[in-house]
Specification:
Organism: Dacryopinax primogenitus (strain DJM 731)
Pfam family, one: DDE_1
GO molecular function: DNA binding
Structural class: alpha/beta
Strand order of the largest sheet: 4-3-2-1-5-6
Number of helices: 9
Domain HTH CENPB-type: 23-97
Distance between the termini: 42 Å
Order of helices and strands: HHHHHEEEEHEEHHH
Number of strands: 6
Keywords: DNA-binding
Largest sheet: 6 strands, mixed
Helix content: 25-40%
């Protein structure tokens, strides 16, 4: 479908320049008219299908159209937030919303973050919540498998397999959040790992009050909520990068669903979302971690 739109260059240009088009205002300057006209056409079709469109979707779709036109990334600089806001106004999308190197490598940092399966689309439906505990060393050279907490002991999408057999460090409780019991299990497992490696570490944890039982190779330090970003490195950009990676992957999957004719393009199973989140964590760069 992408290639069909872009091969119909004359037709798309005619639609883009048609002053009688009711719901759209043409931007004052158009650097890549074929790309922007194709984007306009796609948005019209998506709106007819009732598909919610967010800023990430617009950026990814524009990039796809630019790739089809053979426009190099360095020459297609329309993906800034300013451009997105302008295109949203042009396309009538007023309601669209989205959602330093001073530390030793033996200092680990951990924080808890939450993902909701339907958060990107702002649609009603599945309210599954997952809380993540992310842990990495200070220079980004070693990061632990994400700890995941959700509601169900055995989600249907696991298909009777254990979380461990699927490769996840998974826990559950009614509210899908960290508890003292889960935290103790996490610290005990981490301590065993450090004993096997004959290594002792300092673990910085963001704003929790649990007092773990005595362990030999992990010293836990809880940080106050008003600490600076240098002391709370996970809040300084690491979590933001993780969430951005997840949103990007989810939006790319949603567009694949749209191309396949699926109406509820944002629908995603818990196991699939956990897989995307794991990839999102792995894609946080070493430089991002080391400089936070």
């Amino acid at each position: 479908m992408l290639s069909a739109w872009l091969h119909d260059e004359a037709g798309i240009c005619e639609k883009a320049s048609n002053a009688t088009t009711a719901s759209f205002k043409q931007p004052q300057t158009v650097e890549h008219p074929i790309v922007e006209a194709a984007l306009k056409e796609w948005v019209e079709q998506a709106q007819q299908k009732g598909i919610a469109i967010n800023e990430n979707i617009l950026k990814i779709k524009a990039r796809q159209f630019a790739d089809m036109q053979g426009i190099p990334k360095e020459k297609f600089l329309l993906l800034s937030n300013g451009w997105v806001q302008g295109v949203k106004g042009w396309l009538g999308l007023r309601g669209v919303q989205l959602q330093g190197e001073a530390a030793s490598a033996d200092v680990e940092k951990a924080d808890e973050e939450e993902l909701r399966l339907r958060k990107i689309s702002n649609q009603k439906g599945d309210k599954t919540r997952m809380s993540y505990m992310l842990t990495t060393n200070a220079d980004g050279s070693e990061r632990l498998k994400p700890l995941v907490i959700s509601h169900s002991k055995q989600p249907c999408c696991f298909q009777h397999k254990t979380p461990q057999s699927l490769g996840f460090d998974y826990h559950f409780n009614k509210k899908a959040w960290m508890t003292g019991v889960i935290f103790q299990l996490y610290i005990t497992a981490l301590d065993c790992q450090m004993q096997q490696q004959n290594q002792k570490i300092l673990l910085l944890v963001d704003n929790h009050k649990w007092d773990p039982a005595t362990v030999t190779n992990v010293q836990v330090k809880f940080l106050a909520p008003n600490m600076t970003a240098h002391i709370q490195p996970m809040d300084a950009g690491i979590i933001q990068n993780f969430k951005a990676n997840y949103k990007q992957a989810h939006c790319e999957q949603a567009l694949d669903q749209e191309m396949a004719g699926v109406l509820d393009i944002y629908c995603i199973e818990q196991k699939e979302a956990m897989g995307l989140a794991w990839i999102a964590w792995e894609e946080v760069t070493v430089e991002t971690i080391a400089n936070c």
